[in-house]
Amino acid sequence: HLLDDPQALVVSNYFNTQDTTLIIHIHYKEMKFLLLEQKYLERLDDQNVYDALFTLRKELTPLNHKREKVHQLSRYIMCESPEELRKLANWEGKGLYSRQKLMEKLQAYLPPSVMLPPRRLQTLLCQAVDMQKDRCPYHNTVNDTGLDSVSLLVDHRCTKDDFPSETRQILTDHCDEVWFCRFSNDGTKLATGSKDSTVMIWEVDPITLELRHLYTFEGHSYGVSFLAWSPDDNYLIACGPDDCSDLWVWNVQTGELRVKVSHSPEDSLTTCSWQKDGKKFVAGGTRGQFYQCDLDGNVLDSWEGVRVQCLCYRKDGKIVLAADTHHRIRGYNFEELADFNMIQEYHSIMSFTCDDSGKLALINVASQGVHLWDLDDRLLIRKFQGVTQGYYTIHSCFGGVNQVFVASGSEDNKVYVWHIKREEPIAVLKGHSRTVNCVSWNPKYPQMLASASDDTTVRIWGPASVKSQSCCSPNTLASLRSSCLITNSHQNSPSSKLHSATSSAATGSAVLPSSESANPSPNSSSPLIT
C-alpha cells in the first residue's frame, strides 16, 4: 500500500490508464518529491541518519526539483531529537496523521479513478439531501445546512405548519384601500401606502416578529401606490397614482421629508427604482416622463416619450429595466444613451420585480397572471396558475430562503404562493375580503409575509405552528374600520386618531403613533380567516 511504502506507486510509475499516465507525466516530479520528503523525515524521526542521508543525496537531490526546499531539508539532520525535528519542520511526526496529510496533497494530482476524493461519501450524502430539500415544496429554513439537521432514515420533507400560511397579525390603521407594502432591505421595517394619503412605517420585533407602528407620513393628496426603499434603508420614495405629478423622498431615520420632487403639473410619476449606491434614482409614469434624479430631486438625465408602467435597476447599476405601454420591458443605459428590447409580452405588463441575483423577472400580466422570465436568456420560464389577474395593478414578489418562492395578490381576495419550480400554487392564503394589491416577503425573516388589500388592512402571515396573538375578531375589526372612517372625515376633531406634526400637509408631514396600540387587541376571540 502507498502508506506502507510512500514511494511505491510514483517511483515505479505503475499506472494502467492513459489519462492517469498523462497526469503522472505532468506532475511526476512533484509527487515523487512529496513522497521522498516524507520518507526522509520519517527516517530522521527514527534517528536513522545514515538512511536519511542516502535518501537526501541519492533520491531527492537528483530530482533537480525545489532546490531551496532540499537545502532546507538538509538542515534537519542537525536536530538532536525528534521533538526538535517536528518543531523545526512544522511536521506532525511519523504516523498516520502525517501520512494522511501527504495523501491529501497527492490527491490534488491524482484522478478519482486512482484515488477517491476525501470525504466522498459525505459529499454524496450532502448532495442527496440538498436535492431533497430542493424538491421539498415547503422548505423555508435557514440554519439547516449539512447532515446534522436531517435524518438519513427517511426522505426530507417539510410540513406546511412551518410555512407562512396563517394570519399572525392584522394592521388596521389605514382608513382606505392599501395599495402597496414593502419590507426594508434589512427586514426590520415595513412600509405601507394607502389611498388615505398616508405612508405608515412599522417596526418588526425580532423576537415575536410582530409589527409596531413607528411613523405616519402624510400629505400625499392622491394616495400612495408605490414605495421604494433606498439600498441602505435610510430613505423611502413614495409615488402616487396616474394623476399624481409629485413624488416624496422621506428620511425614515428622522421621520422628516427630505424633498418633494415636482417638475410639471402635467407629469405622472407613478413608479421609481434606486441605483445600487443609493445616490440616484429613476422615476417615471404613463404620460411619458422618465427621469434620473439625485437625492435632492434634481433631474440629471431624462428619456423623452417613454410611457413607463414599472421600473427596476439591474445589479450593474447602469441598466434600468422599464415596462412600457407596448407590452414590453426594455433596457435603458443613461450613461451611453442606449436602449434595447428585453422582454415582449402579448398583454399589458402591470408590474414586475427582479430577484436578488438580477437574473429572473416576475411579471404580472393583465388577464394572464404571473409570468417568470430569465433576463439573461430572455426566455419565458413559467406561467404560474391559479391567480385572478384582470386589469388592476398587482405587485408580486420573490421570497423565502434563497428566494425559491413566489407570491402574488389576486382579484379574488387571496394570496397565492408558488415554489419557483412549480406552476401550481403550494398555498392559497385566505382572509382578505377585497382585492389583494401587493405582497412583500421579509428578506431577513423568511417565515414572514405581508399582504395589502382594498379591504383597508395589511395582513402579516406566518407559520401555523406559531399561533397568532394579534389578530382581532370580525366585530372588533368592523368597529375599528368604522372608527377610522369617522376619523378620516373629521381629522380636525379632538378625537382624531392622527395627530399632525408641525409641517403642513401640502409639503408632507410625519405623524408619530399615539400611545394607544396600533395593533388589534390580543384578547379577541378568533382571527379573521375564511
TrEMBL record:
Composition-biased stretches, type Low complexity, lie in 500-530
Record region (Disordered):
490-530
Report what the protein is called.
WD repeat-containing protein 26-like protein
The protein's matches in CDD domains, at most eight in alphabetical order, are given as:
WD40
| Gene Ontology annotations of biological process type | proteasome-mediated ubiquitin-dependent protein catabolic process
Name one cellular component (GO) term. Answer: GID complex
Stored InterPro entries: WD40/YVTN_repeat-like_dom_sf (IPR015943), WD40_PAC1 (IPR020472), WD40_repeat_CS (IPR019775), WD40_repeat_dom_sf (IPR036322), WD40_rpt (IPR001680), WD_repeat-ST_regulator (IPR051350)
Stored Gene3D superfamilies = YVTN repeat-like/Quinoprotein amine dehydrogenase (2.130.10.10)
Subcellular localization, per the record?
Cytoplasm
Record keywords: Cytoplasm, Repeat, WD repeat
WD repeat coordinates:
171-205, 217-248, 405-428, 429-461
